[in-house]
Specification:
Structural class: mainly beta
Mean pLDDT: 80
Largest sheet: 8 strands, mixed, barrel
CATH class: Mainly Beta
Helix content: under 10%
Number of domains: 1
Order of helices and strands: HEEEEEEEEEEHEE
Strand content: 35-45%
Distance between the termini: 25 Å
Low-confidence stretches: 1-8, 10-19, 22-46
Length: about 200
């Protein structure tokens, strides 16, 4: 990442993560250190793979849950929280543009809705069904298609969002997929579902 990108990434990590769940408004969850009782993500399942150069993601495939979606770019809102994809009938995932691109060293962050209001299910509706070893393919602007394997799936209260585990430095290319989950009240969900995955190869 460039110095500017690193600063913006750090800002987001210390600000509030915002993951809207498709009700037409957004849900803010304060962030901080993971609670002491929470186990760290298991990063042992994926084999080492070579680090790729920077190329913006344009698509995402998760065969185990039937996801094949375009990926749009997301930045920061005026209040310095992470933007979320727009609520539309043709729901799409969004890559946080101040995070590494998929295949670069570090955690690449992709967000998606679990529901999109009156339009029904969101693109990440079944994210919590993923299991260790499930494959994820990111389609990049330069034609590359790095493959990731799920290490772990965590459901956490938004009030206890594990900022360091999601945004913190790692020594290899990793992926974070984030949506809402848990009990729902109206348009609001109490929790976040977070998928932790690591690069296994540069192409399928």
């Amino acid at each position: 990442m460039t110095p500017l990108s690193r600063r913006a990434f750090a800002t987001a990590a210390t600000a509030a993560l915002l993951v809207g769940c498709g009700g037409g408004h957004r849900t803010r969850g304060p962030v901080g250190e993971p609670p002491g009782s929470a186990a760290p993500p298991d990063r042992s399942s994926a084999k080492p793979a070579r680090v790729l150069g920077r190329s913006v993601p344009v698509g995402l495939e998760i065969p185990a849950i039937g996801v094949d979606t375009p990926v749009i770019r997301l930045g920061l809102s005026p209040d310095r929280t992470v933007q979320v994809p727009p609520v539309t009938a043709h729901d799409r995932a969004g890559w946080y543009r101040h995070s590494p691109t998929p295949g670069q060293r570090g955690p690449s962050v992709i967000l998606g809705h679990v529901t999109v209001g009156s339009h029904g299910d969101g693109v990440f509706r079944h994210l919590a069904r993923l299991r260790r070893g499930d494959g994820i393919v990111a389609r990049l602007e330069n034609g590359a298609a790095p493959v990731f394997a799920v290490d772990s799936v965590r459901t956490v209260a938004k009030a206890e969002f594990p900022t360091d585990a999601v945004y913190g430095d790692v020594g290899r290319p990793e992926l974070r997929l984030i949506t809402c989950g848990g009990p729902r009240t109206g348009d609001e969900y109490r929790d976040n579902v977070i998928v932790f995955a690591a690069l296994t190869s540069a192409s399928p």
